[in-house]
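step=predict obj=Cysteine desulfurase n=417
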Amino acid sequence: MSHALGVNVRADFPFFAAHPSAVYLDTGATSQRPARVIDAEADFVRSDYAAVHRGSSMATGEATWAFESARERVAAFVGAGEREIVWTQNATDALNMVALGMADASAGLGDERFALHPGDEIVITEAEHHANLIPWQRLAAKTGAVLRWASVDERGLWSLDGIREVIGEKTRVVAFAHVSNVTGQIAPVAEIVELAQRVGAFTVLDACQSAPHMPLDLRGLGVDFAAFSAHKMLGPTGIGALYGRGDLLDAFPPARTGGSMITVVSMETADFLPAPNRFEAGTQAVSQSVGFGAAVDYLSGLGMDAVAAHEHEISQALVEAVERIPGVRLIGPAAGEYRAALASFIVDGVHAHDVGQFLDDRGITVRTGHHCAQPLHRALGTASSTRASAGVYSTLDDVAAFGAALAEVRGFFGADR
């Protein structure tokens, strides 16, 4: 384990007790959970489970306190106010809520400042996860807006100059990933926010691959909206978060409507609560929120500066392990360049699925496929790649085992002849 963390983090994770020799390099898809996160959710279900924000019983009050306490801690973890965090199903849901809210505003069902009109422009990058692409495609189709993007180069990287070229006076939304889930590229958020603000555009940040791995201050970054997901940051599945600046959320049209998010309802109209409750219709993922709160407590206990330092060490080791093997092509920043702790690559003459199976047979878990980023892979001239992604529990021994196994792949499949 890295000296930056200073503790044996793996001992906190039951997965590694059950699989002592496992090399788990698929954190970019979903992270393992420490025992205290599992216990926090289970203890809540055993002892304090009840409906939240409904009724005046002691049980309801205790459950509501746990639900809202988790929100406060998650908000503080990402540099937000508690009213600026909305519980969602996951990050995909959060991004859709922004796009759907803008679609409603465009149809006259909300504040005009969120409306898009024919000829307005939405700017993204060619490297986006489908969750930060398809909602904007549909918003453009509904409103007559134009979708524009910064293209990637032969390494799968887009540039600030490329973003600058496609942001213009008609730009209304700029949506981009803080960290690419394929290349590990880390976006220059402050510079993009400045470009967007010059033309009065809203910024939407996909923070799924950054929130678990580096200190994150969403207010400080200046973005208008952001999305992240618990299951990628040591927490439960089934819950994510939408961040929105408080002044925007209170006026933003809710994409989900129903019970618990209203003030007055008649047979013709409904008025909505302030944020965050206006976006949380129906029964919420209460126990999952408790687990989410425990997950950020755990990460805070490690210290996000220490987490980032540990993962920087792992990231450079991963890239070096890939780059030293003949016939293996790294996607994204090279060794020594600024990047997150994940490495995607293409093995000449061997399909990514075969690479993944070979590594899996040796106890090494990675991700194969297009990683929900088909346009990026198409630009790279391939249908799929293999990705190794690290987390707080990853070690240099894991990287060494991965590198040794990867070096055998082409020979095993006869691709080195």
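step=describe
The mean pLDDT is 96.
step=end
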